[in-house]
Amino acid sequence: MEVVVIILCSLIVIMALVYCVMKYYPTFGGNSSVRIRHKVSQPANYSKGKFVNQIPNTVDRSFKGTISILRDFIKGNPQGKPREPLPVESLQHIRKKGLQEAQITWFGHSALLVEVKGLTLLLDPMLGRAPSPFPLFGGKRYSKKLPIEIEELPQIDAILLSHDHYDHLDYGSIMQLKGKVKHFFVPLGVGAHLERWGVSTEKITELNWWDKVSFEGLTLVSTPARHFSGRRLMDSDTTLWCSWVIDGQSTRIFFSGDSGYGPHFKEIGDLYGPFDITLMECGQYDERWSGIHMMPEQTVQAQVDVKGKLMIPIHWGAFSLALHDWTDPIERALKAAQERNVAIATPRIGETVWIGSSSYPKSVWWKD
Predict the structure, then answer these.
(1) 204 assigned to some structural domain
(2) How far is it, in rounded angstroms, from Cα 344 to Cα 241?
(3) What is the pTM of this model?
(4) Range 81-97 average pLDDT
(5) What is the domain range of residue 4?
């Protein structure tokens, strides 16, 4: 009997500790459930307290599938990350206000600096060392430094977030950036995380799919993606995920966020294409979860669907979150693009791509 009591007491203590960590550890973010109930009235992508995709995710959640994934992650892949830290080009400039030339600088993974119409935007600025609520235990960034340190950045006109996963929305990065950001544009529910971290409500605009807003000469449109969300054990799909259209009239940009392949790409292309440049995810994939992350060949098809002129492949080159070789995404995407006559830029981390220029990075730097 005493043993049973000890076990029960131990379980209660463990559950209490887990509850306290989930509730009070700030990295997990805020609770969006009440916010969502007040902001939406059963739209097409919201049902029974959860956001849903246009078509269901084809993720293998069977016992056999789960065991196979767990086994493969434990086994690991010796080619899953670079043998040496990746070189990074230092960002030599920050746009002077009033310049109109549009340009994009990749920070690795899905973090990008976009300079357009005299504005400076950051997309999914995960600038931390590891995409984890406990960074000491997460897989580390491939490079030892960033193109520019956060404290050296000037005022940022806006941050656009695609969803609340740790490899896109980073607590430490936001805490360092929030004082120099004029406004945040996020999918529904994600604002709760920012508010918990001290960002004022007035600086946050939340959008549903197909909502659009004008911002200092730009039109920003939150467009669909095929993915999921969540930062805690029990909050899956309680915030929205999205892609973004950035329309500067003379310059049009598409940012895919995270997404499996789906009909939304053609819908976006029909409504807002063609795009001068696209930022398309092509990494961290597996056939077993292809419903939430595209295979590289699907990325190229998505580029065709949205009517993109030039593509920068993203969601690779910084972290290992899947089982493929770390160079597999870019090599497969390049091969598929050559077969489809699709233009792809391959910038090094920190290398700037000028939008509309006939000259763009094409080196195979990962083989150097």
Answers:
(1) yes
(2) 25
(3) 0.92
(4) 82
(5) 1-27
